[in-house]
Automatic annotation (TrEMBL):
Keyword vocabulary terms for this entry: Membrane, Transmembrane, Transmembrane helix
Signal peptide, first to last residue: none
Name the record gives this protein: Type III effector HrpK
Pfam family, one: T3SS_HrpK1
UniProt cross-references to InterPro entries, sorted A to Z: HrpK (IPR031613)
Keyword Transmembrane appears in the UniProt entry: yes
Comp. bias intervals (Polar residues): 7-21
Ranges of Basic and acidic residues composition bias in the record: 25-34, 42-52
Regions crossing the membrane: 895-915, 921-946
Residue segments, region Disordered: 1-52
Length: 999
């Protein structure tokens, strides 16, 4: 920059020392004063304009006259010839901008003639009037930079203003784009229609740039500008959210026809921001949603997971109008509205982001959007404020169990959200092979919803009067007895849950969905962890479940324990816990429960003693009783302290073996055996048929027919022994029970063990095959072989006191077998291998046998199946306790699946002996569902009919609406609670006496 000498002033008011380039001190003083006034002394490095370019870009400087020597004085003050010195021209342009935008007190001037390209305020005679642009320019020429009050804002330097940044961040306005947000300035502007359409009335666009930066080219500046626009449009001066319909329009409202901004309007608030910066904006008034306050007040002991669900809902409620206005939503928010608001507003707080992310899940949204009337409203994709407050008040989980049940249902719904269930119908049951696994999983989820609807409807008194019973029945085309409806729903649910591909699909995909959900919701994951630490590990959740399961001073402790363990496993699965640590946590939690004494007492005095099994055998079939007993025993044995249960293992095995031996012939007769093994069903034994079956068993499982000397019993020896028993049965000198008694004289002679296994196994197979032929027509030869193998295996286990006893027996034969191996079946080579390998191979083969038996005897209720499965469960629990995960996994899985096929559901529903759908629940509790399936069927016994508290007039309309909702789930599947017919086939006795009320 060229330094110049002192200028002369025509009016003598000019002080040349202030700009004398030879007076370094004065020069530096001028630079500092300029900086204080917001004047940049030199052009930025990237500004390559010449003096002439600057003049062309600045008409007010280019056309400036010299009234009262203002042009000469300006040039002297900036220290150079503005026509040739680019930096001098740059300073001069800023000075004119300063006197045009800021008044004598340094306050920002808005509106008026700013930017009109001339200095206003000269009289016709050329005199500068006081307190005008001309007056301020004259004062500057006479007094220098010190006369400039206030700081000239620059869009180019706004980004680096630390004071402005602090003020913005104190208002929760993010200064820079998140790293993950790769939008350009143009993208951000396009995402905000108000910013995109912003005009420059009263210079508001220029003023906005001065405060946030050049938002048309700088992405961070555009990000700030978008947030400022939202604050101006969505909130009033007090920071209260606005809910007017015009909030969602695409322009700044509040300008007069002349372009002036009116106070108290969007235009006024934006103009104030341009004048005063971030200090003019209000902090958002985050008043806590009253429904959330009520929830916390009424549920002081709620776990952290339940609290965060309620908090997420309250955040949507609190920001409902803001979301609606910002997205231009119609009469209700949609999933897309929630997603768009979150995606287009990355500046919002993490809590709100998580709430939006959570409730925009299809499974979660469907729950929330029916919150106002869950018994009468089907999801329609629209969320109202009433839905949210209703859900928080009446439907939100309040403890760790209901919280996990809620979360699991959301995850499972997410898995099948892409299926259009309106296209599903009864064909999915009649021709399952024509439908995809995903469709079946979706049908299962829909029926689970229907199941919950019936249960909740019953609890709410929906069937509480004759009108409601008949109205619901006529509209939904269902049985007037909700228990019958529930039985029918449960039956179809069991079909779908019994499909291994459906279970596999749900398990694998629900686990993925859970991971995805928690990745986007750190607060939820933290809440799950805290609930797990505070409620699950401490045992408090178990005590709460115990209390809720207590009625009239009595507690169903089996249900309480199963529910607790199931939920604990689901929490552990969601949190990806180490299996070993997870198992220990559950054991410790049960030990910490104040009811540990009752659990121990029940295990020792009811299960180990066999009294529980004895009691069930009085009124129920052997299969059903053993199914329930073995699952209960496995459940208790896996969660009670190991040092307590292991000392009872021997007694448990002995008592079970004795009881099983007493009852293995229950329900069978010689007539059954005769039908299967008699010549054309006669009283004469079909030796060829029997011998062929024994040969088939010996091909794959020869070890069943080894005696203590390692000698392989020949098929004809077994047939000969069976012939003797056959004659005794035919003549009536012995009963089937006596013949099959493994603890009798035959079983006592170890040399005859191979014969014992074969004979008793054949008789057990005969009973099962006869049942199969009677219930579903003739069985194939393969099915008969599979049933015989499974039956011989079951008797073998029974004779040796379980799998461990049988393995010990085989180990004792090792040396004898080794010596004579060449003479024996090649299948026996595994007996002389490493003991550990022998155990694995034996377990694997016995598991396959059980699986084949399950498939061949499906629906028959094979005695052999439940006996083998019971021993597998007992052994699995022992292996789990000792840390043998491989053996535990094989035994528990095999045993649980065997029980599933053994008919446990009949005893559960019929007698209410255990938690609804015991087998599925206990299987989940033991950790073998492979994911977060969380399907707990309701069962008929859960339906408690409460007196209707609904006023009669409202009740009738509600019954009609409920019927419509229930019918929308069930009618298409033809589920009506009427076996082998429809409601037209029901007898008069099934209907209320006054059937005219709703006809």
């Amino acid at each position: 920059m060229a330094k110049v000498g002192a200028a002369t002033s025509t009016n003598g008011a000019y002080n040349p020392t202030s700009t004398n380039p030879d007076a370094v001190k004065t020069w530096d003083e001028a630079k500092k004063q300029a900086q204080d006034a917001g004047i940049l002394w030199e052009r930025p490095k990237d500004d390559k304009r010449s003096a002439d370019d600057i003049l062309k870009d600045t008409p007010i400087l280019r056309d400036l006259g010299n009234q009262e020597h203002v042009r000469d004085l300006l040039q002297d003050r900036v220290g150079g010839d503005i026509k040739t010195d680019a930096d001098a021209a740059f300073r001069a342009a800023q000075i004119l901008e300063h006197i045009e935008k800021l008044d004598g007190d340094g306050k920002r001037i808005a509106g008026g003639d700013i930017g009109n390209g001339r200095v206003d305020g000269f009289t016709r005679g050329g005199e500068a009037r006081h307190n005008t642009e001309a007056g301020r320019l004259k004062d500057f020429g006479e007094q220098g930079f010190s006369v400039l009050k206030g700081k000239l804002p620059h869009a180019s330097t706004a980004n680096g203003n630390p004071d402005a940044r602090k003020q913005a961040e104190d208002l929760d306005i993010k200064w820079e784009l998140p790293e993950s947000d790769k939008r350009s300035a143009k993208d951000i502007i396009n995402d905000n229609p108000v910013l995109k359409n912003l005009g420059n009335q009263s210079n508001i666009k220029d003023m906005l740039k001065e405060q946030v930066g050049d938002f048309e080219n700088d992405a961070n500046a555009a990000y700030r500008a978008s947030q400022v626009i939202d604050r101006v449009v969505m909130y009033n001066e007090k920071g209260e959210v606005l809910s007017r319909t015009d909030v969602s329009n695409t322009s700044i409202d509040g300008f007069t026809k002349g372009g002036e901004a009116k106070h108290g309007t969007e235009a006024g608030r934006l103009q104030d921001f341009g004048k005063y910066g971030f200090s003019s904006l209000p902090k958002i008034n985050k008043t806590e949603d009253s429904s959330y306050k009520d929830f916390i007040g009424k549920n002081k002991s709620a776990d952290e997971t339940s609290k965060i669900f309620a908090k997420y809902a309250s955040l949507i409620n609190q920001n409902y109008d803001l979301i609606k206005g910002k997205t231009g939503a119609g009469d209700g928010l949609t999933i897309k509205d929630l997603q768009n608001f979150k995606d287009q507003n990355p500046q919002i707080g993490n809590d709100l982001k998580e709430a939006l992310n959570f409730w925009s899940q299809p499974g979660a949204f469907s729950k929330l959007e029916t919150g106002a009337n869950p018994l009468t409203s089907k999801p329609d994709g629209k969320l109202s404020k009433d839905d949210i407050t209703g859900w928080i008040k009446n439907e939100a989980p309040k403890d760790s169990s209901s919280a996990m049940s809620f979360l699991s249902s959301i995850v499972n719904k997410n898995v099948v959200s892409g299926v259009d269930t309106s296209k599903l119908n009864k064909d999915i049951f009649e021709h399952p092979e024509k439908h995809s696994t995903e469709d079946k999983a979706a049908a299962l989820q829909e029926l689970l919803l229907a199941q919950q609807l019936v249960v909740k409807g019953g609890q709410s008194g929906m069937w509480g009067d004759d009108y409601s019973k008949v109205a619901i029945s006529n509209i939904a085309r269902t049985n007037p007895d909700p228990k019958e409806i529930l039985k029918d729903i449960d039956k179809q649910i069991d079909i779908l849950q019994g499909d291994p591909e459906v279970v596999k699909y749900l398990n694998e995909n629900s686990a993925k969905q859970m991971d995805k959900l928690l990745e986007g919701n750190k607060g939820l994951k933290d809440a799950l962890q805290k609930t797990y630490e505070d409620d699950i590990k401490s045992g408090k959740a178990l005590d709460k479940i115990w209390d809720s399961a207590s009625k009239d001073g009595k507690t169903d402790q089996r249900s309480a324990l199963a529910e607790f363990v199931t939920n604990a496993k689901l929490y552990q699965s969601a949190l990806k816990m180490d299996p070993k640590a997870a198992a220990k946590d559950i054991q410790d939690a049960v030990s910490k429960s104040k009811h540990i004494g009752e659990f121990k007492s029940y295990y020792e005095n009811q299960l180990v003693s066999g009294d529980r099994l004895k009691a069930m055998l009085k009124d129920h079939s052997f299969q059903d009783a053993v199914s329930t007993f073995s699952m209960e025993t496995a459940l208790y044995g896996s969660v009670l302290p190991p040092e307590f249960t292991e000392k009872l293992d021997k007694k448990l095995n002995e008592n079970f073996t004795n009881l099983a031996n007493e009852h293995i012939a229950d329900g069978g007769s010689f007539k059954d055996i005769q039908k299967v093994f008699g010549l054309e069903g006669s009283g004469d034994l079909d030796v060829a048929k029997v011998q062929k079956l024994i040969e088939e068993v010996s091909k794959t499982n020869p070890d069943f027919f080894l005696n203590k000397d390692g000698v392989l019993i020949k098929p004809e020896q077994i047939v000969a022994s069976l012939r003797g028993d056959w004659d005794s049965l035919r003549q009536g000198t012995k009963t089937l029970k006596e013949v099959m008694d493994i603890k009798g004289s035959t079983g006592a002679n170890a040399t005859d063990k191979g014969i014992l296994h074969g004979v008793s196994g054949l008789l057990m197979a005969g009973i099962t095959i006869a049942r199969g032929a009677g219930s579903g027509g003739p069985l194939s030869d393969k099915q008969k072989v599979d049933i015989t193998i499974g039956s011989v295996q079951a008797v073998t286990l029974l004779a040796e006191g379980g799998a461990k006893g049988y393995q010990d027996y085989l180990k004792g034969l090792n040396s004898n077998v080794k010596e004579s191996l060449g003479k024996l079946n090649d299948k026996l080579r595994f007996l002389v291998s490493d003991p550990a390998k022998m155990q694995v191979e034996l377990n694997d083969r016995m598991g396959k046998n059980a699986k084949s038996l399950e498939q061949s005897a499906k629906g028959v209720g094979a005695i052999a199946n439940v006996i083998g499965s019971a021993y597998s469960l007992f052994e699995g629990v022992k292996a789990l306790r000792s840390g043998d995960k491989v053996s535990a996994g094989m035994n528990l899985t095999s045993g649980a699946l065997g029980i599933m096929a053994g008919g446990a559901s009949a005893i559960e529903a019929g007698a209410g002996l255990f938690f609804p759908n015991l087998a599925k629940t206990a299987l989940s509790a033991l950790g073998f569902t492979g994911g977060v399936l969380g399907i707990l069927s309701a069962g008929a016994g859960i339906l408690a009919m409460l007196p209707s508290l609904i006023q009669e007039g409202k009740a009738q309309q509600k019954a009609n609406d409920f019927g419509n909702l229930l019918g929308s789930y069930l009618t298409k599947y033809e589920i009506d609670g009427v076996p082998n017919g429809n409601i037209g086939d029901l007898p008069d006795s099934a209907w209320p006496k006054d059937t005219s009320v709703a006809s």
